[in-house]
Q: What sequence folds into this?
């Protein structure tokens, strides 16, 4: 039986290598999954570019966090899952005991447990994530669709924290993967969505995912005035979602909201970035600024339910495929946006494709016993 597996390991800035590492085993309360599908992610791209993540990942670590797979080993004491179950594990789980968890802010947990290693043939799932944040897939749900649960859970948390409700007008700044998830989820929730985009190819994409109006900033002299002009009576949006992660976009977002509106500064610029706001505008317009981070078990389930509903255009988000060996090349390509007019990938689905004759030892042993 194989004792090692292929996995992508982050060694430094823009230094991602597919190497052979030990196959994980399941301790008490844990699971081991065969990774059937993993997805690329803007957060992973930032980690690749910067070489670290303040909370999720440091150097010389297994890489990737959006996945779905099959249970191939069940640790002692696990009763909710069995060999062969198709599941989606989230990439974190809260302690549910600290101050923030008790306040309903599990995304800010003092002991938030993260897990990485989606770009691999197998992945170990810690006991806390098994208990709190692992979900069984419907039999008909493709693994690559289920792997959208984690990023959509972050978006659902953002909408929840923005107190979004049907009938409101929302401006979404940005049409990258997260911006498009916000556009689609908000439109499905019954909000009127105005997308503010940079590239011409993003206009059609934003409309396909539910934006009722799209503003390309290169087409107007004043993007702030142009965006406000699209809102009812030109008063600004009820909610503005910033999903670009630049200081300029943060400043624009504040100026696109109506009086009494809410701005969710969702995109995370690099550490040390500073932004200037007009204090009179904030004060006399009675604006609310939010900065949503991550997800909670409840928004993970809300995201999963939406994906399972059949209303969500899962396949349209998956615009490319790759093998595990191609992961470093995929991320290198993602660093460079294609030329204007060439539609970029939204998400690439990675299929590790472990051969059947190289099953995880525990699963193979169980198969032999059952035979």
A:
């Amino acid at each position: 039986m194989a004792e090692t597996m292929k996995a992508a390991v982050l060694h430094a800035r823009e230094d991602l290598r597919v190497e052979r590492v030990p196959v994980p085993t399941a301790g008490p309360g844990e699971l081991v999954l065969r990774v059937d599908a993993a997805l690329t992610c803007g957060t992973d791209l930032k980690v690749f570019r910067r070489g670290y993540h303040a909370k999720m990942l440091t150097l010389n670590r297994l890489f990737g966090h959006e996945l779905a797979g099959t249970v191939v080993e069940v640790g002692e004491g696990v009763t909710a899952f069995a060999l062969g179950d198709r599941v989606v594990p989230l990439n974190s789980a809260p302690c549910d005991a600290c101050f923030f968890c008790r306040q309903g802010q599990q995304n800010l947990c003092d002991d938030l447990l993260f897990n990485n290693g989606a770009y691999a043939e197998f992945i170990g799932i810690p006991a806390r994530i098994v208990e709190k944040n692992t979900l069984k897939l419907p039999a008909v749900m493709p693994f690559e669709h289920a792997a959208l649960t984690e990023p959509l859970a972050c978006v659902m948390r953002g909408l929840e924290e923005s107190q979004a409700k049907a009938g409101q007008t929302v401006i979404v700044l940005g049409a990258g993967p997260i911006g498009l998830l916000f556009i689609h989820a908000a439109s499905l929730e019954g909000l009127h969505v105005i997308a503010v985009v940079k590239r011409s190819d993003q206009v059609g994409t934003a409309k396909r995912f539910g934006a009722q109006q799209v503003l390309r900033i290169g087409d107007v002299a004043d993007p702030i005035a142009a965006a406000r002009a699209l809102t009812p009576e030109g008063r600004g949006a009820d909610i503005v979602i910033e999903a670009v992660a630049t200081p300029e976009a943060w400043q624009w977002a504040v100026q696109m909201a109506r009086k009494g509106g809410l701005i969710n500064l969702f995109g995370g610029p690099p550490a040390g970035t500073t932004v200037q706001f007009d204090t009179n505008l904030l004060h006399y317009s009675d604006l609310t600024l939010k900065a949503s981070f991550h997800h909670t078990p409840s928004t993970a389930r809300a995201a999963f339910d939406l994906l399972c509903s059949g209303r969500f255009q899962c396949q349209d988000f998956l615009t490319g495929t790759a093998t595990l060996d191609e992961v470093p090349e995929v991320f290198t390509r993602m660093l460079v946006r294609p030329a204007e007019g060439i539609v970029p990938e939204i998400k690439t689905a990675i299929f590790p494709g472990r051969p059947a004759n190289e099953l995880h030892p525990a699963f193979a042993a169980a198969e032999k016993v059952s035979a």
In short: The longest strand covers residues 4-12. Residues 149-161 form the longest helix (13 residues). Residues 153 and 302 are 7 Å apart (CA to CA).
